[in-house]
Write a structure and sequence with these properties.
Helices cover about 80% and strands about 0% of the residues. The chain has about 400 residues and is mostly helical. Helix 7 runs antiparallel to helix 8. The radius of gyration is 20 Å and the shape is globular. It starts with 10 loop residues before the first helix and ends with a helix.
Length: about 400
Amino acid sequence: MPETKKPRIFYGYVIVLAAMCISIVMWGTRHSFGVFFEPVLEEFGWKRAVTAGGFSLSWIVTGLLSIIVGRLNDKFGPRVVMTAGGLLLCMGYLLMSRLNTIWQLYLFLGIVSISMTTVFVPLLSTVARWFVRMRALMSGIVLTSSGIALMVILPIASQLISSYGWRFSYIVIGCLAFVVVVPAAQLLRHNPGQMGLLPYGYNEVNSASLDLQHTGLSFQEALKTRQLWLLSGIYFCTYFLFYNYSVHLIIHATGEGMPLTNAVSIMVVMGSAGIAGRVLMGFIADQVGSKVSMTISSGLLLIALFLPLVARSLKILYLFGAMFGFGHGGLATMESPRTAEIFGMRSHGMLLGFVFFADTIGGAIGPFLAGYIFDATGSYSIAFSLCAAVGVVNFILILTLNPIRKLAMQ
C-alpha cells in the first residue's frame, strides 16, 4: 500500500467537480433530443416511431458498449476514456447539423451513442473508488448534473432552435462538448492509490489487511446471482420510464395545445426536482441504507405516473414533473452505490456497465414503443398507462432485492 498523504483538499472532490462538468454537458445534449424532435419531424415528415427509433437504437448501442467501456475504464482509467468520449460527442453533433436522410439520423446518433458510453459508467465507477464514506452522496452530487442539464441545456437548445434553427443549434452543442468535456477529462484519476492516497472514509488502521479496490465478486461470479438480474430489471424499468417522458413529454404537451415554453418548463421542473432527489436520497442512503432510499424514490415515481392519466392541466403536469424528477433522481443515484454495496469493488466497472446496459435497453424500448403506439392510435393514453404498469413492477422488484449473504460475511 503506498504511503498516504493528507492534502488540504482531498482530490476526490476535484474528481466529483470534473465529473459534474462533463456530465452536465453530455447528459444535457443527450436529453435535448426531445427539443429537437418536433422541428426535425416538421422538416422531413418522418413517422414518430421511426424518428424515435434512431434515439432508441443509439441508446442500445450505448448500453451494449458500456460493458466494454467499463472494462476499459478499469484498465486504462477515466482520463483516456473521457477524452475519447468528448471528441466523439463533438463529431456526432457536428454531423447531426448536416442531417438529411433517415439512415444518417441512425448513423450520426450512433456516433453520439458511442461517446455516451464514456460518461455514466466510467465517472460513477471512478467516484465509487474515491469514496467509501459518503459514496452515495457523492454519486448523487455527480448525478445532479442530469437535473442541471435539464434546467440549463434544454432551455438554451430551445432558444437556439427558435432563433437560429436546429442545424446551427447542433453545431453549438457540438462545440460546447469539445471545450468542456476534453479539458475536464484531464483532471480525472482512476483511484486514490495513483496519487498515494486512500479513499475518503477508509479506515487507515486496516489498510494493510484489506484492499478495497479488489474486494468482492468477479464479473463471472456476479452473473450467477439473482441480485444482478434483479438490479438490472429495476434499472430497465427506471429508464424505460425516464426516456419515455424525456422524448415524448414535450411533444405530447404541445400536442395538447400547450406553448413550447411551458412544455419545456415542465422538463425544467423535472430537472430541478431531480437535483433534490439525487442529493437528498444519496444522503439518506448513507444514513439508513440504499434500499430504504430506493423504496421511497420508487414510491414517489409510481404515484407520479398516474397523474397524467387523471388530469392534463399545466398544474398537474408540473406536479408530475416534480414527483417524477425527484423519484427518478433518487433511483439514479443508487445505481452505482447499490452495485458496489452488493458486489464489492473487484469488478465494479464491468458490473455497473452490465446494469447500465439494462438501463439502455429500457430507455430504447420505451420511446420507440410510445411512438409506435401514438402512430397507431393518435394518442399517448395507452403508452402512459403502460408506464404506470411498469412503475408497479419496478416498485415490487426493489422490495425483493436483498444483499448477497456470502459477500456480507467477507
